[in-house]
Amino acid sequence: MKTELKEYILEKRQVLGAAALGLLISSGVLFLYQLPLEAVWYSALLVCFAEALWLFTGFGKFRKKQKLLRQLAGEQRKDFSIRDLPESEDPKEEVYQELIESLMKEKGRKDAEIAERLRNMEEYYTLWVHQIKTPIAAMSLLLQEEDTPENGELSMELFHIEQYVEMVLQYLRLESPDPDLAIRSVEVDSCVRQAVRKYARSFIRKKIALDFHETGMEVVTDEKWLVFVLEQLVSNALKYTKKGTIRIYGKDGFLSIEDTGIGITAEDLPRIFEKGYTGYNGRLDKKSTGIGLYLCQKVLKKLGHGITITSVPGKGTKAVLRFVQEKREYD
Q1: Which long-range CB contacts under 8 A does 66-74 form with residues at least 24 apart?
Q2: Which domain CATH number covers 195?
């Protein structure tokens, strides 16, 4: 309240100064006319009383207005309207409110333009992704007609292209203001099998062993998005493991994917979830996009899950998914 009173006095300082000057002049005039001193003091007392009464009633309105303005500033509502502001009490406040209304209309127009551009871009790239899948599928069928080492290599490269195309589509869906989420009870083991099955050829080609211990866990999540996250983690494990084993196990709401790959340097580890960050290993590989883990973290945040990654360079990396239900981003 002391702060509000100080603000109120500062706001009214010109009026108070003018009143004090008027009181001084009127008292001086009365004194010069040699009126009784009691009359001078009495008139000054009446003026001060009227001024104090005016200040007291005005402070109540000022305090109420300040409280409303601070509440509006703290809420940061998207549906804010000029009608939510306190009623203007003088022409200056009316001009300020008109200026705010004008700026809000301009902001609304700009937001609509940006939303329309994003919508058009999303439609274009979604169409592009679906169209590019047709020649990819045709090329895959042609390569399967003759089983040669060269065709095997080309098939793997084509598989990587298909992965990147799918990642573009998932990125667009994830950035959409209306994400496609179907939350229900899901078997974790089934999702793991789907992710591993997709990379079966890569396991065989690279001669990487898979050690999968069924967890028996059921979690409340979106199956399609969880499979996408697991695919990214399995893909990363395969990409950076030249020999050895990829272990998948879990219990009590935690799922671990552990590899015996080259690991992640201590300098890179804090930044692996940044969009576009590839790190030292990614720069050596020259195939890393720096998008996979960024999307994983974003998906898991929307689902109310978490992820932790630890690594020892030269020994391997361990990703732990945390299914303990947290507040989902879209709740």
Answers
A1: 66/4, 66/7
A2: 3.30.565.10
